Amino acid sequence: MDLGIFFDGLCEPINPGGTACYGYAIYGIGPVGKAVTGCGVFKAGAGMTNNVAEWIALGKALALVRAEKLRPDTVTIYGDSQLVINQLIGDFECNNERLREYRDRCLEHLTELGCVWKAHWIPRDQNVEADHLARAAYVGRIGRLLPERVKS
User: What sections of the protein cross the membrane (predicted)?
Assistant: First the structure.
C-alpha cells in the first residue's frame, strides 16, 4: 500500500500569536481517488505560528496512519511549507526547540511505520484540499470566512 499525505497549517488572524489550525488529506487508505481527511484547531495565543501549525498538521496525519495500524510500503508527504519539508528531510537545521520536538515526533511516527518515505515541497495551488481543511477549522472556530490568500 502506498500513501500520499498532503498537509497544511495556518495561524490567524495574526502570526505569531493567533489561532493555529491544521488540515490534512491522506490518499491510499479509502476508495480510489478519495482521501481520508482531518482538520482542527490546535491552540491559540502565545507561541502559535504558521510553522507550529504546519508541523501539527503533518503529525496529526502520521498519528492517524499509526493509530489505524496501517503498514504502508511507502509514504509520500506533500506540503507547501518549505521550512517543514526541508527540516523533515534534514536539508535545513531545526534550531527552534518546539519545532524540533514536532519534527522528532513526526520522524518517530515514520520510523514506527517501518516504510520507505519521502517528502516534497509543492506550491500552495497544488495543496488546495489541505489548505481548505485548515481554513475550515479556523472558520469553525471564529464563525466567519477568511479572506482568500493572494498569490505572490
Answer: none
Instruction: Give the closest residue to 23 by CA, choosing from 120, 116, 140.
Output: 140
Residue 129's CATH number = 3.30.420.10
CA distance 131 to 138: 11
Q: Give the dihedral sign, CA 107/110/114/120.
A: negative
| Non-local CB neighbours of 7 within 8 Å, separated by 6+ positions | 22, 23, 24, 54, 57, 58, 61, 77, 78, 79, 130
DSSP character string of 78-131: EES-HHHHHHHHTSS---SHHHHHHHHHHHHHHHHHTSEEEEEE--GGG-HHHH
Q: Can you say whether the dihedral through the CA atoms of 26, 16, 120, 127 is positive or negative? A: positive
Q: Note down the domain range covering 94.
A: 2-142
Residue 150 lies in a domain: no
Determine, yes or no, domain membership for 101: yes
Domains held by the chain: number: 1
Considering the domain boundaries, does residue 152 fall inside one? no
Question: Which grid cell is 106?
Answer: 513526526
Q: Has residue 146 got a pLDDT over 70?
A: no
Residue 102 banded pLDDT, cuts 50, 70, 90: very high
